[in-house]
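TICKET #2291
ISSUE: user wants both folds in one file
ATTACHMENT 1:
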Amino acid sequence: MSYEVLLERLGFSNSERLRKILEYLMDEEAAKVAAALPGSIDEVSQKLGMDKKKVKEILEDLFVKGVVFPRDFKNREYFKFARDLIQLHDATLASQKVNDPKFAKLWSDFMNEDGYKTLGQVLSMVGFKVWRVVPAYYAIKDLPDVLPHENIKELLRAQKRIAVVPCSCRNVTKLASDGCRYTDEERTWHCIQVGRGADYVIERGSGKEISLEEALKLIDEIERDGLVHTWANTSKMVDPKVTVNCNCCSDCCEFFLSARYAELGMLSIIEKSRYEAFVDVEKCTGCQTCIERCHFDAIELFKPEGSKKFKAKVIPEKCFGCGVCVVGCKQGAIKLKAVRPPEFIPP
């Protein structure tokens, strides 16, 4: 019965595939403890008539696994079960301790069959986009009037603590399929945690703390690989809700796949930056590097009148202003320009 309670809380009451994931993460006794949350160790012990020491042992194990979340990461007395599917997915998979292909396959099967479509539908109906694209630093560093909260390096400089973990999405593709075609998560972790998010991954041992210098160097590598920076959709640079800088790709990222499986546009799930790419046709050689790097299918080739060569052209409505194309263009033929006002980014 405890598994059923947890499935209902996650919004997938009848999912046998998600049940298998829960069964992998915890036995019946642990599921009973998780279903008794939220509560303190004392409260759960009294509620279940279970030894306090045993309850604490189970909750500590579930905390490390990413199933339950303490109010205070250091003094772990009061716990909650994962608030939703995204939190359970990311916490259980974004860890250096995850190395079992069987576990990754369970998540892959569930998300492909049930999770992505439902997640996309739910996110599109929220009424507010939780995430926004942040343009690549090397695509905007020389532009005028760049806001500090749309400069990924300034966002990181504002943080008191930074950590990094393996990307939950790329952990799945690495262990359960052919891996990411853009980068190698085994070589370099790309999911940057800040503030309370950094505190969390350091305390549970799922990632490691890094210096600001290391984080900035990692951003350089992320941009060379062609990943898309995303951030909480707020102009606040430091806030309890600002916990992670996801660096996404279209073949692994849960947001891209949720939109695809739900047959929705990405704009229904994630917000654009203030920028848009444009091409200097004279400089463009038609090499197609920008097309290969674009995660939003926002660039196509066309043959200008009187030209023998094909050139790149941006499809404005599809462009999210991520700047990945700009960073990869050796000819300097593609640039970003601001097309939306500063107040476009919510407070």
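ATTACHMENT 2:
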Amino acid sequence: MEDNNRKLYPLRFVDEGADVPWGHVSYQIADLGFKDSMIDNGWFGGNSLSELMGTYLERVVGDDVFEFYGLQFPVMVKVMDVTGWQPLQMNASDDVAAERYDSFGKTALWYVQESAPDSELLLGFNRDIDPAEFYARCQDGTVKEVLNVVKPHKGEAFLIKPGTVFAAGPGLKIVEIAESSELVFNLHNWGVELPDSEELLLEEAFDLIDFKKYIPKPITGDKLAVCPEFVITKLNLKDGLHIFSEQPGSFAIYYCASGEATVQIPVENDKGSKSVESYSLKSGHSVLVPSELNDFFLIPAASETILLEVLVEKRLVKDSYTNQEVEPGSFIDAETPDPHIREWNS
């Protein structure tokens, strides 16, 4: 890794894909240990995301994010082309994951990029269910009867919280934006043999499952998710968008769901001459804009350009003495306003 005096710039990564029994998974941006995204452009090309974090620290993610997450990049982006039934799965919460597995848990947003007419998602139970009945149905193959069957449409999104059981069926292309974790429990495999790395963990996950009735709610607006783990906004990029903040705040990830865009950075050389650096973003790809780039433009390069913007805002922790949420490593009142204001000017 180069010395830390290098200027940061919008970063693209090598698309690392792999076939799985139910389709194909492509990791766009990931810092997972076993998957460590490699930078694909500029002078950092060939270095990994974790190496970048180890050298540039808060310059990549922002002071607030670095204070909470340290060297761990906090979110990941992957794309799933589903050609067969995904195993019925469930994610653990942060607290349980930290206590039992020394890992982050996983809250995830699924954005439906493509959907065949007969495609289905399974999300939560259609009624309150007794754990013993669920276990028996997983064993005899009738578990789908007690699950919500959703007919997803292109452009819809679903927030999958820890404890909710879920699975995707064939004919879907899903963009998953989630915490940096692949701590996922496979509960039922629909009779399909899984590799050793994806063994069934029904008994291990049993006390983590939410057995109550769940009502799936597709998200169709511009604001797809606002939660402690991430903030995700759908941008219909019809005109240029100027993104500016007085102080560096969160990093930003942009995934191009359709069309094409460029990220343009105003620059000034030693002689005071001004110019613009342009970074392309094609459909199906992602770019990471580091925190220190707090003044840039998003410009559509094709009609019907849709971007998914991912930010991580300041996270608070609970002080065990006062039971109040405070900033990490401090006892500052949780209501202290965040000075990082993000302005969108089209």
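RESOLUTION: both attachments delivered.
EXTRA DETAIL ON ATTACHMENT 2: The domain at 75-220 is CATH 2.60.120.10 (Jelly Rolls).
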